[in-house]
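Lab channel / #folding
Pinned by the channel admin:
"Please post every new chain as: sequence first, then the structure tokens as a reply. Keep commentary short and put observations after the output so the thread stays searchable."

First post following the new format, from NK:
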Amino acid sequence: MRRTDVVVAAVALFACAVAFGLTFRFATMPAAMVSGLGAEAFPRLVIGVIALLAVLAAFGIGNPPMETPPPVPPMVWMTAAVLLAFVGAVELVGMWPSAIVFLVGLGLLWGERSLWKLTASALALCAVLYGLFVRVLGGNFPKGLIANLWS
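Reply from TO:
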């Protein structure tokens, strides 16, 4: 048993225990209305499978030894920070302005130099997403705190 596998398995088992405990807060349905596994049985089944896989990982079953992986490149952490900033920006200014700035900014971060290409592709992608999800499927996206203050 490798120490890192035991730590990961312990964290996963703790998360499983918390999630399993939360399933007891689900409202119970009358037996006549339940079809299939029910609202609480399916999550418990999935949590049980995850817990079983965590125990197997802790004992090294199905997890062959391997070399220590290289450190995570700094670009990964910068990209994760930009993604977190995007989530905050969506809440503040809305989906579409945030998405355009996010796509252009991430492209610049990843090394693209043509601001024209980045802007054009961001606008095109947002237009396709808007057309598909809002116009065709009838969904909606967050307008953001600032837009909600205006309306």
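NK: Residues 108 and 144 are 25 Å apart (CA to CA).
TO: also worth noting, The chain has six helices and no strands.
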